[in-house]
Amino acid sequence: MEIIQVVGLGLVTTFLILVIKEQKPVFAFLLATFVGIIIFISLAAKLAEVIGVLQNLATQARVNNLFLETILKIIGIAYIAEFGAQVTRDAGQGSIASKIELAGKVLIMVMAIPIITVIIETIVQILPA
Amino acid sequence: MPYHLDSVFQIAGIGIIVAMIHTVLKQMGKEDFAHWVTLFGFGVVLFMVAMLIQDLFQTIKNVFLFRT
């Protein structure tokens, strides 16, 4: 029952933040970041199991390793960028959050280029000359 | 939850106590001391958060990026 722990942690933290925010908003922000990271780390351990299963399936199906690796990297970039953007937006800097998201999108596009190249080469081979 | 959650209450307590000390020192007329106390508390909490962020990035690298 991990979900009860996460929800309880969230409720307790919200209460503490409500108490602190009146006096020192900086500490409230740091506390929110801290709890966000704790939840994220506890989820990452679960995600690792799922990814292990995926990797097993991919090796059994003899999928090209490049694809799985790229997709996992893209998912990782998306998670990190989302986390950073949310923390920054919590602190009231919406513009920096937008830039972080933009950087995430561009980096994902760069990562996807090898896969796109493979797809286009395959299509060109299939097409009659 | 692999992480002991005492740190949450530690941070909240540091925040409340620092706010209290700040108020008391301000009432006593020692403004500069009050600001130093606030800065020190902020540094301590920032250090805790920074350590945890390093942990988080390491975990994400291990999970998603194939231990590179």
Short characterization:
Chain A is mainly α and 129 residues long. Chain A has four helices and no strands. Chain A has two domains: 1-61; 64-129.
What does this structure look like?
The complex is a heterodimer of chains A (129) and B (68). Chain A has helices spanning 2-21, 25-60, 65-90, 94-126. Chain A has two domains: 1-61; 64-129. The longest helix of chain A has 36 residues, at 25-60. The relative contact order of chain A is 0.07. Chain A contains four helices and no strands. By secondary structure, chain A is mainly alpha-helical. The mean pLDDT of chain B is 84. Chain B is 82% helix and 0% strand. Chain B has two helices and no strands. Chain B has one domain (6-64). Chain B starts with 5 loop residues before the first helix and ends with a helix. Chain B is an all-alpha fold. Chain B has helices spanning 6-27, 31-64. The radius of gyration of chain B is 17 Å and the shape is elongated.
Number of domains of chain B: 1
Number of helices of chain A: 4
Please give the alpha-carbon distance between the first and last residues of chain A.
Answer: 59 Å
Category by helix and strand content of chain B: mainly alpha
Low-pLDDT stretches of chain B are: none
Rg of chain A from C-alpha positions? 20 Å
In percent, how much strand structure appears in the residues of chain B?
Answer: under 5%
Helical coverage of chain B, percent range: over 70%
Radius of gyration of chain B: 17 Å
Q: What oligomeric state best describes the polypeptide chains here?
A: heterodimer
According to DSSP, the number of beta strands of chain A is: 0
> What is the H/E string of chain B?
HH
The structure class of chain A reads mainly alpha
Terminal CA distance of chain B: 25 Å
Most strands sheet of chain B: none
Total strands of chain B: the figure is 0
Average pLDDT across residues of chain B?
84
Principal-axis shape of chain A equals: elongated
Overall pLDDT level of chain A = 89
Large-scale geometry of chain B: elongated
Number of helices of chain B: 2
Keywords (chain B): Membrane, Transmembrane, Transmembrane helix
Protein name (chain B): Stage III sporulation protein AC
Pfam family, one (chain B): SpoIIIAC
InterPro entries (chain B): Spore_III_AC (IPR009570), Spore_III_AC/AD (IPR025664)
